[in-house]
Design brief:
The structure holds two protein chains of two kinds.
Chain A: H1 2-41, H2 45-60, H3 63-84, H4 94-120, H5 123-131, H6 136-166, H7 178-189, H8 192-221
Chain B: H1 3-42, H2 47-62, H3 65-73, H4 80-84, H5 87-91, H6 94-119, H7 123-131, H8 136-166, H9 178-189, H10 192-221
The chains are: A mainly alpha, B mainly alpha.
C-alpha cells in the first residue's frame, strides 16, 4: 500500500485544483444564474429570448462538447478578436478556460433554479416592499433575494454537486486535476484501479462536506418557517 | 465557417449518431432492469438488506461518471484474475467498458428515483389494498409499481437526457460516437467550431426528441391528472 502514500501528495495537489476550479466556477455560475433568472422574468422580450436560448442550448448539449468547443475554439476566438483590436497574442490558460466553461454551463442550470425560487416568493411581500417606497434594487436585495434563498437552496445544492462531478471532465482537456493525476499515478505504478478508487473516495468526501454545508444553510434560511 | 468540411464528414457524424443511440438505449435498458430490484431492496425496512443497494446508489451518484468509466476501462487490467479469465474479452473492449459504466451509473440514478417514488406512495392506497386482502406481492404488482412508474416518469425523462449527455464520455476512450466523430473531424482539419458545434446540434436535436417523446408518453399515462376539457 506504500505506493498510495507515495503518490498521495500529487493526488491531493490535484484535489486542491479541483476544489479551486469548482468554487470559482460556482461563483461565475451564481452570477450568471442570477442575471439569467432576472432576464427570464423581465418584461423585455429580447432579454427573455436571449436567456431562453442560453439555457436551452447549455442544458441541451453535453458538458464535454461545450467544454472542448470553448477550450479549442476559445483560444482562436480570443486571438481573432485580439488581432482586430491590435492586441498581442493572448494565451488562454487551461485553468481559466475550465473555470469559464463550467461556470458558463452551470449558470444555465442555476438560472432555472433561481427562476423557480424567485417565482416562489409571495407576490404580496414584493408589493409591500414597493408600497414602502423601496426602489426595485432595494426590493430585490432586501426582500426577493433573502426570501428566495430558501426555495432555491435544494436545487442550488444539487447543481453544486453535479458541478463538482463535472470538474472531472477538465482532465480530458489536459488540466491536472485529481482525475488526471490519478491517471499519471496509476500509469506509473500499474495500479490504475487503486488510484481511481482513491479519487472516487475523495469525491465522496467533497460531496459529503457539501451536504452538511447545504443542510446548515437550509436551517439558517428557514429560521422563520414552521415545520411539521 | 467551413461548411464544406462538415458536409464531407456527415457520414462520419451519422455513424457516430448510430453508436451514441445504440450505447444510450442499451445502457438505459440494462440500467432499468438493474434499477428495479435495487430500488425494491433499498426500500426494505430491514437495515441489513437495504444497506448494500443504498451504498451502491451512494457511490455511483456521488462520484463522476468519468472516474467510474476509467475504473472499469483502465482499472480492470490491474487484476491478474480478470486479466487471465474469460472476462478479459469484455474488459479489453472500450465499448463494453463504456456500456457497463453507463449501465451501472444510470441504474443507480434510476434506482434512487424509483426508491423515492415508491416511498411516497399514498399510504391509503396500500391500506385499501390490504383491506381488500391482497398479498404483499400483489400489492406491489397492482398498486405500488404501476403508480410508481407513472409518478417517476418526469424524473426519469431527465435521467434519460443526463445519460445522453454522459454518453459523450465514450468519445474519450476511443469510441467513435458523436463526440468521437467531432474529435476526429477536428483533429484532421483543425476546425474546432464547426466540428463541435455540429456535434452539439446533433445532441440538441436528440435532447428535443427525448423531451418531446416523454411529453407524449406523459400525456397518455397522466391523462387522468389533466383537468377535464369542456
Amino acid at each position: 500500500m506504500s505506493y498510495i502514500v507515495d503518490y498521495l501528495p500529487l493526488i491531493l495537489k490535484g484535489m486542491l485544483l479541483t476544489v479551486e476550479l469548482a468554487l470559482l466556477s460556482l461563483l461565475i455560475a451564481f452570477v450568471l444564474g442570477m442575471i439569467g433568472a432576472l432576464a427570464k422574468l423581465s418584461k423585455s422580450r429580447i432579454a427573455r429570448s436571449v436567456a431562453g436560448f442560453y439555457t436551452t442550448v447549455m442544458r441541451g448539449t453535453p458538458e464535454l462538447v461545450t467544454m472542448t468547443l470553448i477550450f479549442f475554439g476559445g483560444q482562436i476566438l480570443v486571438n481573432n478578436i485580439g488581432e482586430k483590436l491590435g492586441l498581442e497574442y493572448i494565451d488562454v490558460s487551461p485553468f481559466m478556460a475550465g473555470v469559464l466553461t463550467i461556470g458558463f454551463i452551470y449558470g444555465a442550470y442555476m438560472t432555472e433554479t433561481f427562476r423557480g425560487g424567485i417565482l416562489a416568493v409571495s407576490r404580496g411581500e414584493i408589493e409591500a416592499g414597493y408600497a414602502f417606497g423601496m426602489t426595485p434594487i432595494q426590493v430585490f436585495l432586501r426582500i426577493t433575494f433573502p426570501a428566495m434563498v430558501r426555495h432555491a437552496l435544494p436545487g442550488f445544492g444539487n447543481n453544486w454537486l453535479v458541478l463538482v462531478k463535472a470538474t472531472a471532465l477538465v482532465s480530458v482537456i489536459g488540466l491536472q486535476d485529481m482525475v488526471y493525476n490519478a491517471g499519471l499515478a496509476g500509469g506509473s505504478t500499474r495500479k490504475p484501479f487503486t488510484f481511481y478508487c482513491v479519487v472516487a473516495f475523495l469525491f465522496l468526501i467533497i460531496t459529503g462536506i457539501s451536504d452538511v454545508g447545504v443542510r446548515w444553510m437550509d436551517r439558517r434560511y428557514s429560521v422563520g418557517v414552521r415545520r411539521a | 465557417m467551413d461548411i464544406q468540411v462538415i458536409i464531407d464528414n456527415l457520414p462520419l457524424y451519422f455513424q457516430g449518431l448510430r453508436v451514441t443511440i445504440l450505447l444510450v438505449v442499451s445502457s438505459l435498458i440494462l440500467g432499468l432492469c438493474l434499477a428495479l430490484p435495487i430500488a425494491l431492496l433499498a426500500t426494505s425496512k430491514n437495515r441489513w438488506v437495504s444497506i448494500v443497494p443504498k451504498a451502491f446508489i451512494y457511490f455511483f451518484r456521488g462520484t463522476p461518471l468519468l472516474v467510474q468509466m476509467f475504473m472499469i476501462y483502465h482499472g480492470m487490467g490491474q487484476f491478474e484474475a480478470v486479466h487471465e479469465s474469460f472476462l478479459w474479452v469484455i474488459f479489453k473492449q472500450a465499448y463494453a467498458c463504456a456500456l457497463l459504466a453507463f449501465a451501472l451509473n444510470t441504474a443507480a440514478y434510476t434506482a434512487e428515483i424509483l426508491r423515492g417514488t415508491i416511498e411516497q406512495t399514498a399510504f391509503g392506497e396500500i391500506e385499501a389494498a390490504k383491506a381488500c386482502g391482497m398479498s404483499n406481492a400483489m400489492i406491489y404488482r397492482r398498486i405500488i409499481l404501476p403508480s410508481t412508474f407513472r409518478r417517476a416518469l418526469p424524473a426519469y425523462g431527465n435521467e434519460v437526457i443526463f445519460m445522453l449527455h454522459g454518453s459523450a464520455l465514450a468519445g474519450v476512450i476511443t469510441i467513435v460516437d458523436l463526440f468521437g466523430a467531432a474529435k476526429i473531424v477536428n483533429a484532421r482539419n483543425f476546425v474546432p467550431f464547426e466540428s463541435f458545434i455540429t456535434a452539439g446540434l446533433f445532441y440538441l436535436a436528440l435532447t428535443f426528441l427525448i423531451v418531446w417523446g416523454f411529453k407524449r408518453v406523459e400525456r397518455h399515462w397522466h391523462a387522468y391528472l389533466h383537468p377535464r376539457e369542456s
